[in-house]
Amino acid sequence: MLSIQHLTKIYSPGGVKALDDVTFDVPKGQFLAVIGLSGSGKSTLLRCINRLIDPTSGAILLDGQDITRANTDEMRRVRRRIGMVFQHFNLVHRSSVLTNVLAGRLGYINPAWSLINRFPKADIEKAKKQLERVGIGDKAEQRADALSGGQQQRVGIARALMQDPDIILADEPVASLDPVLAHSIMQHLEKINKEDGVTVLCSLHFLDLVHRYADRVVALNNGQLVFDGLPSEIDDKKFKEIYGKDAERVG
Amino acid sequence: MEKKTSPLRSLCIALAVIAALVIYAYGFQVTKVSLEETSNPIRQERFIRILRALAKPDLITYEKEEFIVEAPIQIPCPTGGAQSHAPDTSKPYITVTPACAEPKGEVTIEGFNFEPNTNGPLNFIPPSGVSLKMESIQTDSSGHFLITTNLPKRPSDEVQTIRAITRRNLGAPHFSRNAIETWEKIVETVFLALLATTFGVVFAVPLSFLAAKNIMSPINSPLTSVALSILFLPTGLALGWQVSGKIGELSQTVGDSVPINLVGVVLIPVILWYAIRWALPPVEETTPAAALRAARLTVLLFALLLVIVFLFLLANLAGLMGNAVIASLGAFGFLGKFLASLGELLRFSITLISALTGAGIVNTIAGKLGQNIAEKTSAPVNRIVNLTLGALAGAVLFALIGAGIDWLYELENPFYTFTLPSLIGAVAGFITASALSRNATLPIGLVIYMVTRTIFNALRSIESLVMVIVFAVWVGIGPFAGVLALALHTIASNAKLYSEQVESIMAGPIEALTATGANRLQTIVYAVIPQIVPPFISYTMYRWDINVRMSTIIGFAGGGGIGFLLQQNINLLNYRQASAQMLAIAVVVASMDYLSSAMREKAV
Ligand SMILES: Nc1ncnc2c1ncn2[C@@H]1O[C@H](COP(=O)(O)OP(=O)(O)OP(=O)(O)O)[C@@H](O)[C@H]1O
Ligand SMILES: [Mg+2]
Questions:
Q1: Long-range CB contact pairs, B523-526, < 8 A, 24+
Q2: A98 and A117 fall within a common domain
Q3: Counting beta carbons within 10 angstroms of the beta carbon of residue B285, is it exposed (0 to 12), middle (13 to 18) or buried (19 or more)?
């Protein structure tokens, strides 16, 4: 369903080549892990897919539609099908948890109604249900910054779920969390992947998480795709290719 | 380890010290620092007198009762000796010994039976009847006083008079006229600051977004859109202006019929509600058919016209009701007047707002059209369109600037203010268009950002005390000029402060909401505004504080408020009166200071 073709991104001041001719396909319902060293281009890749970053060249086909050519209106329709979960959660701190979750509906709601801060009743019900689903139904009225990191990330997931997404992009969703919380967040993503059939693209730092949750791995090094296969195929040789020859396996 | 000081370094330090000496010496000279002046006894005496007057602010007075007692005096002594003077010793009386003396001779004046502990002047009354003050009297606890003084140098054949006056306070103390005036003016001052802050903030908040780099810099448009916008912008302004003007005229015809206005004001919102509900469904999963979209657009335009009608009727109604209740409200008549003024203000702003709205709508349409042209046309067609539009837009833009210059400087030379700018603009537009590649966009957001920034910085550097002089010429000396000056300054400086806050918000939430498909408006409402509310409140309080301070002195330059009164009293050397005003200012400023910091703490 998602096809990345010759994707290249050069950041204009400085000319850093963050993505270099990256090509791969993601079938529907897959849990794809994106790995690579810091600075290898994982975030750039994920952000190109929903055009938070405009790629320099190449194509991104979502069900045959080239996202890189979509205009503003088309982009709105594309983006609302793609949920995103962030390393630093990116919640609006001073707003309530419920408002943060409801924000996931903004792509569907007529902007004129947002001006007076109105969401349809059905959306509010739905937001509460999503919060129940991620296990923090009782926190709906609290301010987002009153929550712990793990809880904030669940709000982030609930917000993405509000979009009824076909794809979820998760950019190091557990890098700011302790290992126990990391597993609980990853389990939520796994559940969404398995139960709802949502395709997940998730960049990860820890190989044990990759082995435990991912169906498939792509690895980036210096913007280039250096590995595309099953988690179990990452042997020591491959590992050194991905992380450099001085790297030691810990996970 | 010891650091070696190089001779060059020592020399530099020496030079710096000498330079500092020279700078301060020159500073002393130009600011005329003079210790001699401060120790000059005449000046010191004057200074102390003022200080003492200032220490006794004119706030409270009493009803006074005066006792006037006179005694004759002859200057010089007549040949037959002085006439005897036998005062009535049952009443207050004074004795003068001796009863005659040479000019400037010494006499002793003694008073008896006065009210205890009162004071007043001791005057010398020559035949002309004027009153010359000789001394001050202070009676003791038994109502007695004794003064030895020199007579004035006023010889006369006639008998002259020495008059002792003592005053006694009667009844309870009450506020003096000056205190009441001060109170009225301080109220005027506080409200001047309130209005200026309110008006200023209302404009500064939306403008601050235009001056925030993080909001504006992602706004890029293809040249086609920008050019079309520039071409149509004046049309949009004129259209909005004309339409609202026409509706305004129409609404005037029913201007004094309360029922019609009332029905309109009640009915129109109901119609609007249903129209908007239909035309803007809250959620839409798929793009509707073109026909439906066109129908909705028509309904929305119609709704917009209705809004204008509604606002005009509302203005009518406010005026009618306000004027009707002025008489019946008595002391609260100002409420009616306020309502009527609100109506007028509304009527005045509708025209402006609809002109801007017209410009906005036309601008959006032009932008969309431009986007479509840029996307849908083949490369050569696109190029030709861009070159033509670029040249045209450049010409219009420069011609408008030329017209502005012509208006300001009255050059009345169309070659320099119309032909030449249009030509230059056309060439510049043409060059820009030909330099841009097909998919290139213009950083229109950054341009707007820089223009607004520059305007704010320029306005901010003009103190409101200077601005008020201009406004006083325009609307007359008084508090209104002060309101305008302070409001303008508030717009400029708060828009700057606000925009800095907008720039310092966290980008994460904006990114997250953009990723959900929210458009720019929605990201501002849901990700930007929640983050900026506390600093905006805090800066607004801060500005209110400053405006109260400024409004106390803006009267010095013709801006009304207590400053005007203060300045008058200082010029008339009424230091006791001025002191009351200074005291009032101090109290108001201090309490505003306290209030605003307390509220700021609450808000954050
Ligand atoms: N806005 C930007 N401007 C210029 N260069 C950038 C920008 N963002 C990222 N880069 C550069 O692009 C490269 C890829 O960055 P990216 O953030 O995609 O890496 P990453 O794999 O997500 O790293 P990390 O694991 O640290 O998050 C890096 O070299 C980075 O310095
Ligand atoms: Mg990253």
A1: B524/B209, B524/B215, B525/A114, B525/A115, B525/A117, B526/A92, B526/A95, B526/A99, B526/A103, B526/A106, B526/A114
A2: yes
A3: exposed
Tally of domains in chain B: 2
The domain that holds B590 is classified in CATH as: 1.10.3720.10
Q: Does the CB of A130 have a partner CB in chain B at under 8 Å?
A: no
In sequence order, the 6+-apart residues with CB closer than 8 A to the CB of A147 are A97, A136, A139, A155
Total residue count of chain B as it appears in this document: 604
Q: Is residue A251 part of a domain?
A: no
Of residues B280, B511, B531, nearest to A112 (C-beta): B280
**10-residue averages of pLDDT along chain B (604 residues):** 73 94 90 82 88 88 84 83 76 86 87 86 88 86 88 86 85 87 91 93 94 90 88 89 90 83 90 88 76 89 91 90 82 84 88 90 87 83 89 92 88 85 92 84 91 94 92 92 94 94 93 93 92 91 90 89 91 90 92 85 73
ipTM confidence: 0.94
Same-domain pairing of B471 and B534? yes
Q: Is A222 in the pocket of ligand 1 (CB under 6 A)?
A: no
Whether residue B51 contacts residue B582, with contact meaning beta carbons closer than 8 Å, is answered with no
Cross-chain Cβ contact A72/B519 below 8 Å: yes
Ligand nearest to the CA of A52: 1
Is B280 an 8 Å CB contact of chain A? yes
Asked if B534's CB is within 8 angstroms of A107's CB, the reply is: no
Chain A contact for B292 (CB, 8 A cutoff):
no
Q: What is the pTM of this model?
A: 0.81
| B83 plus B198 within the same structural domain | no
- Dihedral angle sign, alpha carbons of residues B563, B567, B569, B570: positive
H and E: helices and strands count for chain B: 20, 9
CA distance B354 to B309: 11
B 366-395 residues with CB below 8 A of A? 371, 375
Q: Are residues B69 and B210 in the same domain?
A: no
Q: Is A76 on the interface with B (CB under 8 A)?
A: yes
Measured CA to CA, the distance from residue B358 to residue B370 in angstroms comes to 18
Of B509, B518, B368, B517, which Cα lies nearest the Cα of A78? B517
When computed from its CA atoms, the radius of gyration of chain A, rounded to whole angstroms, is 18
Residue A85: beta bridge partners? A170
Residues B494 and B574 in one domain: yes
